[in-house]
UniProtKB/TrEMBL annotation:
Highest taxon, organism lineage: Eukaryota
Pfam families for this protein: PIF1
The protein's name: ATP-dependent DNA helicase
Key word rRNA-binding present: no
The protein's enzyme class: isomerase
Amino acid sequence: MPCEHCPHCKEQEAIAAVLAERMSQNSFEDFPNVVQELQPMEEVPPLNPCQQPVALDICNNWKEQKLHFIEGNANSGKTYLLSAMWALLKNMELNVEVISSCPFPRQSKPILKFLALPDEYIEEIDIILIDNANQITEQLMKSLSEKLKRVMSTDAPFGGKTIVLAADFGQLLPFGDFKNKSKSTLKHLTENIVAPFKKHTLVVQHQDDWSLFLDNARKSTKIAIPTTNIVKSIDELIEYTYGPLYTEPPHLHSMILTPKKNDVDLINKKVLEKIKGKELVLEALFNGKKIRSDLDLHELRLKKGSILILEEPFEGLAKGTRLFFEDYDRTHLNCRVIENNKLVDIERVNRFLAPKSPRKSFKEEQQSVKQFPVALGFASTIHTCQGRRFVNLGLFKLNQCFEHGMLYTALSRVGRFEGFRVLADDNIIENKLEPSLV
């Protein structure tokens, strides 16, 4: 309360009276408008004449038509289209999630990780984009539908969410018994079960010799590899794929693919031998002490300039990330992410050992060692390369392809005849197919 005779208080009262009089003479219109900063728009990549109408149809009618299925051969741009649609939908201020088991240009997660999301998070999602849906089983898709129904408290298919699937069922299917999985693909689901999906078909814009060759690999039981693409030795295959390793670093955007895991280990060791430099032996640690053992988990053999692959997630990098090994110290591997050239230091983590006998209870401690979560990444099985693209591709023992879509999946990892070589005695390769899927 102001003092009755205090000069300071009287001065404050006078100032307040003047301010009140001035405020009464001004309207709120005299105050400057506060401009809210606009959120940056997502950049939408250009679409070709086949992709554009599909994107506009789905984005403009996402409330009315809830279920969409985009089908197309390799190189038709399915993943590219989903990435563009993600940007369009984000610019419409919609909440979009991406499910993919393979690398995707935007942030994504595998379906099992999506199913583990909390209900509150799922409730806010408007649209779910699913890439490489040929890698998802019908049962998992039904589980997704049931969870969305429960979260949204409705019997509408997928809880009333908008679902956009993209798939090429000529490619590999999920792991499992072939007879059962060929009957339980999402192609069957999109046509017969849950709810009708609106089908969109993407076609390759420029039908050249390469696209015709891939289409033949997708549909034919025998494939004729051009004789110019045949090599006769593993040394020739390695040099084509990675270059002259004695004098140069390996070509980073290259890979050798093979149907079976045993051959992956063989090729990795062969390529490592050819790289110039001293071989490093990084032994695992148990209770702070080195483990002397020839097991792969215990002993990691590398050279500077090796290509590595992450065997488990590490500091935001996904499992399967390819790395270029530059240097090391006692506790870290100094690497560069091949995809974006980002530097990353990999440290030892707990790697769990497979027990000799099953644990009697969950309380029983599982033994682990400290080791770097990487392996040599010069070669890969065809199963684990889906969704990736390479500049140079070596193909080893293609005549041992044992599943539907394996040969087609391998060949479609490049985009031209000059981009691959096959180690084979004969240029005619037997192809495994399920006719109902192509």
